[in-house]
Amino acid sequence: xxxxxxxxxxxxxxxxxxxxxxxxxxxxxxxxxxxxxxxxxxxxxxxxxxxxxxxxxxxxxxxxxxxxxx
Length: 70
Fold this sequence. Notes:
Blueprint: H1 8-26, H2 30-41, H3 45-69
């Protein structure tokens, strides 16, 4: 834990933004794409959400460091 809190709404928005174009291209639902991703990665939904949350926190920290260095 890096001390950066990422709320569930931010995680949900990030996941939707990532899968929406895939669903549109495949002409299927976002839920179907999410299930395919989970199956392909061998992750539960909770593990996937935790991974996305961690990535958002890491990105936030890196941006803060980059801004602080300038």
